[in-house]
Amino acid sequence: MSTTSPPEDTSVLVGGGVIAAGYGERAAGRGTLTAVPEDRPAALRRATAAIVGLAPVTGELAGRFVAAGHELSLVGGPVRDAFLGRAVNDLDFTTDARPDEVERVLTGWADATWDMGRDFGTIGARRGEHTVEITTYRTDAYDGETRKPVVVFGDTLVEDLERRDFTVNAMAVRLPDLEFVDPFGGMDDLVARRLRTPGTPERSFGDDPLRMMRAARFASQVGMTPDPAALAAMTAMSDRLSIVSAERVRDELVKLLLGRDPRAGLTLLVDTGLAEHVLPELPALRLEVDEHHRHKDVYEHTLTVLEQAIALEGDHRDPDAVVPGPDLVLRLAALMHDVGKPGTRRFEPGGGVSFHHHEVVGAKLTAARLRALRFDKQTVKDVSRLVELHLRFHGYGDGVWTDSAVRRYVTDAGPLLQHLHRLTRSDSTTRNARKAQRLRLAYDDLERRIAEVQAQESLKAVRPDLDGTAIMRLLDLAPGPLVGRAYTHMLAVRMDQGPLPPEAAEAELRRWWAEQPESRA
Asked: Structure pTM?
């Protein structure tokens, strides 16, 4: 940080406030200002306009803290996003006030408050449509053994900024004067799309190893790249991630996958070794070199499938979008669809290679990994089901799609049919234009056949023509396994033959029953 004061014309006057770039504090008191390069005023103006646009929320809140004798600054993500021109929604503030004092200041102003983060110095509040989090200055760190940070409250803004993950998140705006505080050069790094830590990366990642994953998340969300020092530390310290709770790791992975360029973030995880502790199935796809090139690069294929699946998502702003993006289930399924290949690869006589039943193995691996990352049950179920079904289309080869095959395909996919359509289409990464065209046309034909059969029948929930009650009445059976077997048979008949008239369904049931040994007992 420069020790010279900036010329007066490098500060920016907006909305009655002054943004003085690079304001810092030292242990002995206030430090000096760092000049903003002259090509930055436009960025400062844009950011300040976004912050001023949040008034009267920020102004009202700042006024209450100042009146109570406390400091208040907008900090971290909202400041970063304001510079990037991204929407600023939830507001993060930092203050010298302790949690109890924060609650007193909020009393009478907030519509609601909550203190789930009290142990970490955070009090949440809602005012109208705005949600705010106010955190006491902190200097927390991991103790190296437990999975939770040791929280120590601090006394100055710069002390709080120094403990943050990256310089681009260590910028603040003092309120109510709109004084821009950037003691670690975060603005320069933001312009350069560079991730750098306020202190040494070894100390930063040692304090909270999840920050290494956060670097990969920023690569996906905003296209930032760790500087050489941070990259080296991430690689050397990747095993430290094991002390972080699965829930926190999962949340970062989700944000990464829902970013605009997940491939960049995933590549960073794999290249640094972090993926070995988060999603080891992904680097495992980098199968040892096959000098005879008997199969495609599964790792690169997977990343391409992910990108192609994302391209098939609908616009989230379109109310008619079938699978609006970003869709976590689709993206997870694309990422995991081939994780069963390493364990099923076999080199066949004659030079071929096979991955028999890799979809079944992959579904089990996917469910186990997502459960380990503490994903909810529905996400685990949906993603693993898509992995299991992703080859179903190819099982029919170039054959004609019969009504029976269409019914089974739709019924097996259930509510995931539109996801399966997109996953299957994205799974074609061949460079052979003729083969790619043939696969597209074949899937077009399948979707056409599905539409035809759906127009004739209700395929959303295919059920037998006779339910359990009817089966028990016609065969004079009590509830039990026999009824289940009969139901399964009638469901298979429904799949193969479509809906039957009542008389035909009853005749088929009696025919089946006559062949069962229990009918002669």
From this structure: 0.77
